[in-house]
Amino acid sequence: MISDFAFLIPILPVIAFVLTLAFGRRLPAGGAIFSILAIAGSAAISILIFLQIYPHGEPIHQSMPWFSVLNFGILIDPLASVMLVMVSFVSLLIHIYAVGYMSHDPGKPRYFAETSLFTAAMLGVVLSDNILQFFMAWELVGLCSYLLIGFWYRKPSAAAAAKKAFLVTRVGDVLFLAGIVLLYFNMIKLDLPSGTYLLQFTTIFENVSRIPSGQLTLITLLFFGGAVGKSGQFPLHGWLPDAMEGPTTVSALIHAATMVTAGVYLVARTFPMYLAAPDSLIVVAYIGGFTALLASTMGLVMNDIKRVLAYSTVSQLGYMMLGLGMGAVIGAEAVGISMFHLISHAFFKALLFLCAGSVIHAMATNDIREMGGLLGKMKVTAITMLLGAFALAGIPPTSGFFSKDAIILEGAYTFWQSTGDMLPFFFSAAAAVLTSIYTFRLWFMTFTGKPRSERHAHESPAVMTIPLAILGILALVFGGLAVSLFIPFVSESYEHELVVELAPLGGYALGEIAHAGTAVQSIPIIAGVGGFIIAWLIYNRRLLDMSRIIKSSNPLYRLLVNRYYLDNLFTDIIGVIITHQLFAMLGEWTDRKVIDGIIDGISGFLIACSELLRKVQTGVVQNYATAVIIGVTLIAISINIITGRF
Amino acid sequence: MTDYSLIIPEAVLSASAILVILLGLVLKNKRSLAVISAAALLVSIIAIFVSGKLTGGSEELFYRTMVVDPLSQVFKLVFAAVTLLTVIASIRYYRDHPNQDEYYALLLFATVGMMLAASANDITTLFVGFELASLSTYVLAGFDKKNAFSVEASLKYFLIGSFSSAILLFGLSLVYGTSGGLTNIPDIVKFYSENPAMLTGAIGVITILTLIAGFAFKMALVPFHMWAPDTYQAAPDVVAAMLAAGSKKMGFVAAFRVLLLALIVAKVDIRFTFAILAVLTMTFGNLVAISQRSIKRMLAYSSIAQAGYISMAFVVMSPLAVGGGILLAIGHAFMKGGAFLAVAVVTYMILSDKKDSQGADHLDNFAGLGKRAPVTAFALAVFAFALAGIPPTAGFVGKFVLFSATIETPGYIWLAVIAILNSALSLYYYARLVKYMYVLPPAGDRISEPIPYVAAITLALLVVLIIGLYPEPFIDWSVSAANAIGVR
User: Fold this and answer.
1) Domain boundaries, given as residue ranges, for chain A
2) Which of A116, A136, A162, A331 is geometrically suited to a Cys-Cys bond with A13, CB 3.0 to 4.6 A?
3) What residues 596-625 of chain A have any CB closer than 8 A to a CB of chain B?
4) pTM of the predicted model, to two decimals?
């Protein structure tokens, strides 16, 4: 049975991590072969398991005790299986691509070791069967992200970005951990039969209805705090664009396709809890929708090719969150549509990043103002990136169209129809237009027009272009092929009865998916194509001279290019002034003056006592004999006290 | 029928001690005497293992004047092993000494005395064993007779030692008198359990008092400890190792056998007195050790502190606590013995450089020892950490068992807290020594480490680490020893 080998999925990359660290230096390509073979193995097992589960197979659940009420285990249901396949497959392609991309870097063994460890940790997140193991893998993923963002640690900006990413996501992680602790205490109170693993997802879901609803809302909001940090949602989105300081392959793997989606996966994984606390789901929806729109406006003005993509990642993650939030009215279907977008986004965003990497590899710059006219020189890159751009902009028939369409229409529109609240729909539709504009702005500025600098670009080697082609094909056809099968399959992760039973707890009634009229149905298409036309007119035909709008005297431009001053608010004011200068300095002062003072005082006192007492030792034998007499007297007194004679 | 095989350890040592003296009269080259002594000790150790009494069974010998049980065997093992270490190290220290025949004979006689005390089933045997060991060690402490300090220390040790022996003897005579002429320890214990009034009356109090004072001197409990720092510091290094590691334990084994048992059966609750003694001893020892610059003196005070921890067993009196006390005593013998021998390497090399240099064991001489004498420094660092009670060493295991037994006993958590705080305090001077050895720049060139010393230190190091890493059999022996003396 292939399921007996499920444990190998995360173990193989761990072995590769060890081998690469130990022997990578002596092997060609820095020992990439270990990572590639191991991850290929993981991918193969994942695909076989997926085929076993699909379409109606039983989920794989293996578990062993850790200690007390905790356990280690593997849970592969439809939700986890699609995620496993995506993570291992995309990771495999990116590892192959990295052989070419990192070929000139002396730190290759470290790179491949760390990406292997990352892949192992990410796969660990996906197949955890309990929230604590999930959290441990989640933290390990964060550590790898930190290490890889700061891969070029000698570059100050990279080191700073790594630190920022670590600290900002830590805010979320602390909330997540607090949520786990709170959940644990609630589970203990339930008096479950001994031998039950308290933090196992299945145990939690079976007992969701017994946890007080206020507690549940708090727990799910805390979990969502973790998701906000990891998935770069407002207000903790600031680290993700800075994280682009790492190698582009890292951005593609960690900060586009896999790790940043862990937050979305967390909400999807614990979806029954959210379903029973729909107030949290509404928060998820609003934060997601708002982030989608906010990030897309910032993407409009960025000139760094990777930063544009980073903002688009933030924005698309917002869509996924929005999709999950719609679960308040469409139930488990929300997991299906959100995960559908997650997977299709992973393909096309990894593709876009790898294309950007190819361009950067050729041009040795990130600035799209210095590019232009690359279409003739880099045909494969240009065409695959165009496919990725179509997908990102949601233009039919690419996969992005189908997945985004599902969120906007089946999700946000149904929500509007059944609750009368049109804000999520507005967010998603407006963001779709802006997404299309900045995506094609990027493509036109990079590949068309006249070259704006004197660099000699060349197409990348086959080891890089073949993964591009594979991802390009996936970006093109995945959505269309899978749309009718994927969503029901993943939604099946949560049994229908469970959903029906839980949803009324929060006071929201599940409705039928609303059927939008033709006019509404065409909105996503109009948004995508409209954005394309606007970008074409401005950045290709040059109908509008942007230099007259883009200048520092334009307050709107200033606001956008300074990212709404949010970074200044969060980093400079909350981070530096309040946390560092106020709390950290206060802590340091306390440590130095108060704690150290107490310690020094104690030690000074003891040393003084010591100096005093050593004088007792006079070296005179008569005194020693006296001491013996004193001792005898003291013992006599104490015995008499005890026996009650005094 | 007396099973004579059970006294092979003592018999072999006594015979070889006499042999060593006789050979010393005729031999020109006396270096082989060390080998004879070492061989005798090795035979003795093997005989103890072969006796099969380490984990259970007890047998009385010679008209019930001696007893062989786990308690006696465990301590005999420690005495023989520590003397063996001392002998190995002395091969170099007294290589060309003209009177080394006397030295080795005295060492062996001291060991026999300690073993006798460990096996004593009769207060007369006990006192004879005590005195045999004490008289031998008085001489050994002043064996470097041209060194004025050594002689002075020896004299002080003798004076205070005799004083305490007199007190102890007085106590024993009171026991003899009140019990109507009994000398056999089990008989005495039985007598007191039938007539508890004999221990709670005025004479009884004086009896207990003098016994405690007498044993406390041997165990070096504060305020009966004053001889220890002077003696340990000025005695020859190898002798100091033996005194600290061996002869002190004799006080403990005798106290376990007589005092503990008598107190248990007679239901005299003087736990509080011992609690005060234990707290005083560990706190005083650790505090004063902080301000010592002479390493031997520091080790002497640390030894006093350890005695304080071990005497917690008299307070708690549960099998696990007494077992823990015994285990800590065993571990301490090797940690402290090894530490003194490591110090001996340094002083030996400094003195062989410059005769009669004062304060060879000053802390400053240990600066950068990690570079000057890597093996010695490493071993000394491990001994220091072991004395502080850091895993994976014998010191940790002993303290762990003893302290946890104390915590488990209702009403004595405060004692465990004080002991743990003391352990933390002790780290101050142990860590300072390690800092000197590994952080500070070397105080001189590399020292050559004499092989006999290294061999002895390595042996001690191995024992300390083996007890730390695989404590099972040692805990077993210690708890059997505690059970053997009837601790419930």
Assistant:
1) 270-561, 568-643
2) A116
3) 603, 606-607, 609-611, 613-614, 616-617, 619, 621, 623-625
4) 0.65
